[in-house]
Amino acid sequence: MFNRNKKSITLDLHREEGVGIARTLCASADVVVENFKPGTMEKYGLDYASLSVDNPELIYAACKGFLAGPYAHRTALDEVVQMMGGLAYMTGRPGDPLRAGSSVNDIMGGVFAAVAVLGAIIQRGVTGRGMEVNSALYENNVFLVGQHMMQYAVTGKAASPLPLRESAWAVYDLFTVAGGEQIFLAAVSDAQWARFCDVLNFPDLKAAPEYATNAARVLQRLSLLPVLRERLSHRTASELVALMEQAGLPFAPVRRPEDLFDDGHLLATGGLADVRLPDGPKAGMHVKTTLLPVSMDGKRLGVRLDLPAVGQHTTEILADIGYSPERIERLHAEGVCRLREAEEIFDEQVEG
User: Fold this and answer.
1) 3-class secondary-structure state, position 127
2) Which residues, including other chains, have CB under 8 Å from residue 78's CB and lie 6 or more apart?
3) For residue 108, which of 63, 150, 41, 73 has the smallest C-alpha distance?
4) What does CATH list as the number for 167-257?
5) Cα separation of 188 and 171, whole Å?
6) pLDDT confidence of 347, banded at 50, 70, 90?
7) What is the pTM of this model?
């Protein structure tokens, strides 16, 4: 998913010649991205201060667990920062903190690094010099829960975990319907409530004075929802999807990740693309993967290169920077471009 459109080179940074190759690559790079523990790149002379001497236009993105400060030495994982950063508390029920159902900080930490890089590229166009930018999992997580922090700062009332949230709308909930399927339905304005009642043929609810306004419906939410649950329990999810879409109302059938491979919108818009697996039990097979959630000039950013096997392009990249075939062969033979054990690499990285 994340390594398509990349080339892979392996270098033993414990060897002087391996570090030399890395420095040669960085000398011609627009951007260098690293994700190692603090101090690791300085140890090899691959930090921004060292590399920018030979490449003053270099933009250097360091993706860490924590920005510089008291926590910088800690090892960060997505779940670690979700627990300490309030996201797990907001996701789970009281007394049962629960990590979000995706590696949101791993992914968005990278996104914010990319945003910072783009800003640095614009600044480089003004000054002619690059810079170092940093992103971090913990700070990303704090940004995600910033809305709940602001609620407390403004109102003095702590936010409840989302499963217990006090909804601003009466109809904004999950309903179990025929066959045990689940669907989320919402009506967040008086006009939507009227359409909701019309399309579902609930004239009595539409005419009831206790449900006339959103404020009134919120006050009656505990009595209104059981009525809706009983009336909707015999409808099918597909029927409700058709009715809600026809009426322009918010809705969402509950689906699993594997269901998305058959999603009509993703298939119609080219949101899924084929990649060839380089290794593992399905090596050589093509599978569908998600693309970046953007289009540029009306086109999705597709797959140019299948994800590489580790070190697949080592010889090609060395040749591109001027190494002779004889020297490349020697580097392989001497282990400078060897494959290190995954555990060794993990120990030096901030996160898995």
Assistant:
1) helix
2) 99, 103, 104, 105, 106, 137, 351
3) 63
4) 3.30.1540.10
5) 7
6) low
7) 0.88
